[in-house]
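Intended use. Records such as the Basic-leucine zipper transcription factor entry shown here are meant for training and evaluating sequence-to-structure methods. They are not intended to support clinical decisions.
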Amino acid sequence: MGSIQRQASSGSDGSAGTIDERKRKRMLSNRESARRSRMRKQKQLEDLTGEVSRLQIAITQIQQSINAKEQAYMQVESTNNVMRAQAMELTDRLRSLNSVLQIVEDVSGLAVDIPEIPDPLLKPWQLAYPIQPIAASADMYLN
């Protein structure tokens, strides 16, 4: 009977040792798994931080480009306003000259060819002036 108890007790001691060994291995495995998980999260955080930095740089570049385009637009708009004012002034001068020609025609009796002044505001798609080529360079579109 003593031998049976010894086998049972030695078996239970061996089982306890096996259980302790399994528990220790599981704890080590869990620690390693947690360490890998922390490393993955750290890498994800670094990747996202890098992406944020790249996106912020891209946003800054886009904002600078927008500002440059807005300045160019404002310059073109200003030039257009000046040219519109000049066109109106020249049209008024032409009307005055045409009225002088009309008076000369009436007084002298000579037939004078007085051209009609088209109104660019009524028909903006019909140019009142001869088409002149506009010199442009490729670098003006790169800004």
